[in-house]
Amino acid sequence: xxxxxxxxxxxxxxxxxxxxxxxxxxxxxxxxxxxxxxxxxxxxxxxxxxxxxxxxxxxxxxxxxxxxxxxxxxxxxxxxxxxxxxxxxxxxxxxxxxxxxxxxxxxxxxxxxxxxxxxxxxxxxxxxxxxxxxxxxxxxxxxxxxxxxxxxxxxxxxxxxxxxxxxxxxxxxxxxxxx
Length: 179
What we know:
Layout: E1 11-14, E2 23-26, E3 32-33, E4 38-47, E5 50-56, E6 65-66, E7 69-71, H1 78-90, E8 94-105, E9 110-119, E10 130-137, H2 149-160, E11 171-172
């Protein structure tokens, strides 16, 4: 970040009074520009004993498999965002059953809210961010071709919760380099 979004003056990395870390502070109006983690929302979408996977068409990790997920947009709830991502990436209509995982990923500057969901119709097709989409039997998940560690974690968590009632939230703060 180089310029103030309020007055366009240059920013300076400095520690504001009373703060415990350096921040981007405007040299013109004094506004402090905070950098905060992005919120990612997504869903493990199931149909009977199959799970929906999307092969990424975009970087990072183009060509690898993931669940439908992406950044939360302003003005939408986390659940609305997860439904939107399922539609954008796989043309999937889903019903969210509940939150199953919250992952803090400091190295990616993300907090991920991941839901358990049911497909309302098994007909899916790639959206603009997916090369292909598939309903995969749990025994056939391509574990070695998954895009991100959090996809591994949430798929394993979802599989372990099969048949369990309710959302059963887990909160996990991974150690750097783990996964």
